[in-house]
Amino acid sequence: MLLIGRKVKIRNFEADDLEPFLKLIQDENNHDLAGLEYTEDVNFGRDLLDMYQRRDGAYAIALKDDNTMVGIIESNKRGESEELLLTREIGFVIDQKFRQQGFAKEAVQLLIDHSFNDLNLTEIWASTEKDNLAPQKLLEILEFKYIYEADQALPYTGRHNVVKYYLLRNDSLLVRNS
Predict the structure, then answer these.
(1) Is 86 left (phi over 0), alpha (psi -120 to 50) or beta?
(2) Which of 2, 12, 107, 174 is the most buried (most CB within 10 A)?
């Protein structure tokens, strides 16, 4: 995949992404706020990058000018049943050094445009940790609508993980498909 914007591009992962990828997964904040895997083990980090390279729907967010990876964006299938085939759930994380510069907004918009215009999706979902306000604000700016929150705690752990779900619909496609 290659989607090019003004400042960023969405592309497949490359071998040169190891260092910035390790920086992302070695930041506990990214795990706590975005659900990104966390490890300080470099060998396990290499295995994770390999997994991301092979994962359908997982891409690097890179600077357009010098190809530096600054984040990860995903577009995951929500299921294989007929009513879910034209929907996806997106997720994204930007390295702390590159936040507040518009890179996430541009990358998510590129993926939205691709999803609705090229893939003919009808819905895009996104979820955020309840206390992760920055992506919630971004989703609302991009016209996602807050739908509900759910506790995704694992049974018997005693830990709660409240997540807020947002939805963006391609209303023009929904009308045509009705």
Answers:
(1) alpha
(2) 107
**What is the C-alpha to C-alpha distance for residues 111 and 96, in angstroms, rounded to an integer?**
21
Single pTM value for the model: 0.88
Compute, in degrees rounded to 10, the torsion defined by CA atoms 115, 132, 136, 96. Answer: -60
**Residues present in the chain in total:** 178
Separation between Cα atoms, residue 95 and residue 115, nearest integer Å = 24
Locate the DSSP E strands across 86-159. Answer: 87-94, 123-129, 145-151
25-63 as b/e, with b when 16 or more CB fall inside 10 Å?
bebeebbebbbbeeeeeeeebeebbeebeeeeebbbbbe
* 150, 165 Cβ separation under 8 angstroms: yes
Q: How far is the C-alpha of 148 from the C-alpha of 154, rounded, in Å? A: 19
Whole-angstrom Cα distance, residue 145 to residue 156? 32
- Please spell the DSSP secondary structure of 101-120, one letter per residue: SSHHHHHHHHHHHHHHHTS-
| Per-residue confidence (pLDDT) for residue 176, from 0 to 100 | 47
